[in-house]
Design a protein that fits this description.
single chain
């Protein structure tokens, strides 16, 4: 479509995120990237690309009427999206593509058969998961990511229920071994050890999604964008009884994590104007509408949700997404070494599921990561 509109030839490369993320950073740092546009996760790479000043500041492009179409409507971007893409120094070095809020997928048939109600609190979710779990029937109450690094957002989702994030607002002090953090670790350990399928410490989102679609899991905690296969009769055994529910409330707060992806242009690109036209096209109103209609995530644009052509995967999915946006908070710390953070904390969480003490693991992980964070603050 972009080529037809502009006559500009596009070569596109898609990689698994575990490969794409380090590849993008290494190429940008080298000063000789092989790409003119890159999609990236702000919750992983925002601060590192911002610190390196590797991406073009989009503000001059957005202000240029020769480059930005009148109907692009920059003012349509939501407040949350604007906060996500703005660097600490005020630069806007990317355009928002989509946001992923976390929620609970649940099997309505299992709930109905057992006479269960959707849990409103974390305590209720654990009690409900225990009622569903029956290993003799290969039935489990809950599934969530157990593999290191990918498992951290599950723990932070629970931690937000204590009205706490993982670092102080200035990003300088870790809050990963506080009583609230340990409580979240205990909860994570308990629900995965008692209520999740065997081998869960090797599960990323894909394994969780597959086990849920097979009809042997009552609840799955993960992102809003993973819904489409669940309601597809071609691949899902439970397509006609998938429930989508708001993240449960914790003892001190009711929040859910949000993660935003964006698209940017390397400073070293030799085709910046063409790249900007591509970024503009990829984040226009129709693309945002397509995203939500396909169930891929939350639109960064306000107008998407009042568009008469809006047709989400299910109405419950859309309702839960909109309610989730009202209680969304950052699900990962906005720091440069966020990948290392996820690795260190992720190992601690995996150890917990294998039986280790949460307090001991989190204190050890905090001490391990502390010098890494301190070193990053000096750069």
């Amino acid at each position: 479509e972009f080529e037809a509109l502009t006559g500009i030839k596009v070569v596109s490369e898609r990689l698994p995120e575990q490969q794409q993320r380090p590849k993008m950073v290494m190429e940008l740092a080298s000063g000789n990237p092989s790409f003119d546009v890159s999609h990236f996760s702000l919750h992983v790479n925002k601060r590192i690309v911002g610190t390196g000043k590797w991406l073009e500041d989009m503000r001059p492009y957005l202000a240029d009427p020769k480059l930005t179409a009148p109907d692009y409507d920059w003012a349509d971007m939501s407040k949350g999206a604007m906060v996500a893409i703005t660097q600490p120094d005020g630069r806007i070095d990317s355009l928002p593509v989509e946001s992923d809020v976390w929620l609970i997928y649940y099997n309505k048939q299992i709930f109905s058969d057992l006479g269960l109600q959707y849990p409103k609190t974390f305590d209720e979710m654990l009690a409900t998961a225990r009622k569903i779990t029956n290993p003799a029937k290969n039935m489990y109450g809950f599934v969530g990511r157990g593999v290191k690094n990918a498992n951290v957002p599950v723990w932070t989702s629970i931690l937000l229920g204590q009205d706490q994030e993982t670092v102080t607002p200035d990003g300088k002090t870790l809050l990963t071994d506080t009583p609230a953090a340990i409580w979240a670790g205990e909860y994570y350990k308990t629900i995965l050890r008692e209520c999740a399928p065997p081998g869960v410490i090797g599960f990323n989102w894909n394994e969780c999604q597959t086990s849920f679609m097979q009809g042997k899991v009552g609840m799955w905690m993960d992102g809003v964008g993973f819904c489409p296969p669940l309601v597809d009769p071609k691949v899902s055994k439970i397509y006609d009884h998938v429930g989508v529910g708001l993240m449960p409330a914790g003892p001190k707060g009711h929040f859910c994590p949000v993660f935003t992806d964006a698209i940017g242009i390397p400073v070293k690109s030799k085709m910046k104007h063409a790249a900007y036209l591509y970024c503009q096209w990829a984040t226009n109103k129709q693309m945002a509408l397509n995203l939500v209609n396909l169930g891929g995530g939350a639109s960064p644009r306000v107008s998407t949700y009042s568009n008469p052509a809006l047709k989400p995967p299910t109405q419950e999915w859309l309702t839960t997404l909109l309610e989730s946006l009202k209680i969304a908070r950052s699900g990962l710390p906005e720091i440069v070494p966020v990948t290392e953070f996820r690795d260190v904390i992720g190992i601690a969480l995996t150890n917990m599921v294998q039986g280790a003490d949460p307090a001991t693991e989190l204190k050890k992980a905090t001490e391990t990561f502390k010098p890494v964070l301190e070193a990053s603050l000096k750069t």
